[in-house]
Design a protein that fits this description.
By secondary structure, the protein is of the alpha+beta class. Helix content is about 40%, strand content about 30%. The mean pLDDT is about 85.
């Protein structure tokens, strides 16, 4: 699996992938309440703005199809992490996050990586070595769980 760093010429494809994942992965009640926010958050313009203010977007392809996207803010916080629905439960997300951690170590980013896990996905992050770092908090009309992992070379 080759992890690539997003450039301006990949933003349209990344935006379309994130919208598709949002529609396939997020339950209806949550999605309907948060659609306007998320649509703005993943627009090409918003992604570009975050890229200029410290976020790095990473992605990977399988057979020339975009299959995963992650946003890392300031080299220490996973703000977005999406895997194509046809690959979930097959270890691909875990390999993607491991490769992402290695890229961050190689680029001398923080040794502690954090994520605010949407509760149904907390088990995935636990299986990748993340631990709870605080109480559940209400975010975007649902509970999220702050988590962290010490990453070392």
């Amino acid at each position: 699996m080759l992890i690539l760093q997003a450039e301006n010429n990949t933003l349209i494809e990344i935006e379309a992938f994130l919208k598709k994942c949002w529609e396939e992965d997020v339950f209806d009640a949550f999605r309907s309440k948060n659609e306007p926010f998320f649509s703005r958050f993943i627009s090409g313009d918003a992604i570009k703005k975050r890229m200029y203010t410290g976020s790095i977007f990473y992605y990977f392809l399988l057979e020339n199809d975009l299959k995963g996207v992650a946003e890392v803010q300031d080299g220490k916080h996973i703000a977005l992490f999406f895997i194509a629905s046809d690959l979930r439960g097959k270890g691909v997300g875990k390999r993607f996050i491991e490769k992402l951690e290695h890229v961050l170590i190689k680029n001398k980013h923080q040794l502690i990586l954090t994520v605010h896990a949407y509760l149904p996905h907390a088990g995935f992050y636990r299986s990748c070595g993340y631990a709870e770092s605080g109480a559940k908090v209400l975010g975007m009309e649902t509970f999220i769980l702050p988590m962290y992992k010490r990453i070392v070379d």
